[in-house]
Amino acid sequence: MVNYIKGRTQKAVFLITLMVMALWGGTSALLAEKLTMVAVVDLTKIVSDYFKESTEWREIDELTKKMEETVRQRMDEINALKQQKIEAENANDDLLVLKLEEQIRKKQEYLQEYNKIMSDRIQSKKENLLTSSDFSREIIKTVQYIAESEGYSIVFRKKDPNILYYNYEVDITNKVLDHLRRTAGSR
Q: Which domain covers residue 90, as residue numbers?
């Protein structure tokens, strides 16, 4: 009789252990599945595609065009100086060659500094546009709607430096843009 009870107790403990493991495994599998639902969104694309008609975006666009034109002009000047240097070398005018090399170096340094400053300014304006309360509120609300309706647990910025790889299937940028356009038409 004792062996019978002992055997039943061991079976009961074994079955309870199996059930707990099954429940725990099922729960952790559900949690793991929920955590793996990750998406990325390209906020710069959303701003440029959806908000490009805004005054702020036109200002950024004008600043970008101005920068590109200035860079082109400075490159033309540098190329003209390089051509003059070649002619001075062919004429064996070492003094003029040195003078032109110095002018080229200074113009290249200026161009590099100008490019960095303007790129930083443009990027800053884009970031400010992204963080302006009305724009960001509308974008975040739409990202949240898409994420919740499609079961994503977390959404990263596509250009986040911590993202080493992502599959294009988790990019919800176009879905966010489509939803923003649909809801803008209904207002």
A: 54-131
